[in-house]
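Re: [help] complex structure
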Amino acid sequence: MTRLREAAPRLTVNARLTTSLLAALGAIVTIPQSASAQTAFTLPAPPFELPMLPSASGNWTVMVGIGGEYRPEFAGSNNGKFLPIPIFSIRRSGSIEQFRGPRDSASIALLDVGNFRAGPAFKYVDSRKSDKYSELTGLGNVDAAYELGGFVEYYLVDWLRLRSELRQGMGGHTGTVADVSADVIVPLIQRLTISAGPRFTWKSTNAVAPYFGVDAVQALASGLPRYDARGGAHSVGFGSQISYRINPQWEVHAYVEYEKLLGDTADSPLVKLRGSSNQTTVGVGASYSFDFRIR
Amino acid sequence: MRRIAFLWIGLTAFCIALGAAAAFETRASRIQAIKTVGIVSAIGEEISLTRAGLTGLGEAAQSSSISAWGLDELIVQQATRLLSGRFRVQPVTYRRAAFAAIRDSVVAPVNLLRSDPFKELVRSDVTPQGLDAYIVITRARSKLGNGRNIEGVGLAEYRTLLADYGLIHALYEVRVIDGKSFDVIDKRAAAPLDNTGTVRVGGPSGQVDGPFEKAGSSEGLRAAIADLIVRSLPLTLGDMHLIDDP
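Output below.
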């Protein structure tokens, strides 16, 4: 006879290990666990609704948090810098968060057949100011770039994601960028997930030249030898992340992404003489989710 | 020059707000004007069995018939009870299989651009015609894990390295279709009953403890699914302002 419970999951014998692990994590992060079935507050219905869009009435989930990322000061740099990253999202309660890799661009799945998804993707590449870092002296500024394109991802099984992105740059660079990645996603328990996998990036000449090329004027100003950076295999790497949902409200995560620059990028004098072809990014974050209701 | 630009921006914002307010009035007033409704339910003919998480290759979802459970009759009964305080609910006849067969397109923009397929079905398949509105309750879809979709009534198992988690779900959406123009006045998927579950899906669900393979024949399972529906229906209809907040 099927027995039903609202509170506790069915655990296998191995779940004793889970319990121990949770106890250990609980000891590290002691955060009060509030009742979660209730909404935090209720707002009145908005005085108007937009045509073609569903009513705003119902429950909504807000996620707020803060993260930090330690990453190279600029592409090819040997030094790192720490950046705080705010976390914020709002969605209708019940919409499910999909697995997301730290290197994934912002994307929307317009085509979704369960294990295959595709849609537009967007990435913002920060500007590079030559006066901010001594290694860049004389190389000139590179404006912020906006990369717009698409993504496809396929789950061979529920725990193996293959993803590819193709984006065209505008602004700081006008080249083409292709990312390919694979992630093995292992839920140790439902609340604790570890993922890891290889990455590969290809960039066209126009995508690498502004960052890794050194023209005649820049060579004179910087003391670096003149260099024409051409497109091709840009980097290979490996990434891993761990996320733990402490309770329905609190979630913590950490990740590391390693990238080895290749080809003309790695051979650039900026990388060879003043930087490094080993690029590592480490990030951590914590977020809190709560529900509110619109009448 | 800048002043003119600000004026244009202000004028545009005012027009958008006015249009939006008019749209709200239309939706609210259309629901206010409804006196007679018919209820169509088509979610309870099949139960799906889905595995996600650490699964093997080719573990596709299975389904089996549960038409004997009478879930759609239960939904019509419950909805009738809830809506009777405000509307005059009239019994309607329809081909349940025709409503159950309609699926959303996997290309999201298509669902926004195409005419709602249930409109035509209500026009052609439901009798009697001429009621002020029809409340149509059909299957909704959600993600389970990363690469699995689940929909309607079902039993799911999420496998992890150290533990397996089972849950039942009753995912459905409610449409209010105008009985004269057959426009969709409102549409809403039932929300989760709470957010305390270990495994989350985008609709009413509850955790289950028991043998996965034999669950389809269990009376306890039927009772649990019915409980999800009975608890979630007032919330969903309340969110749509069809009944007072429960």
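Residues 15-28 of chain A form the longest helix (14 residues).
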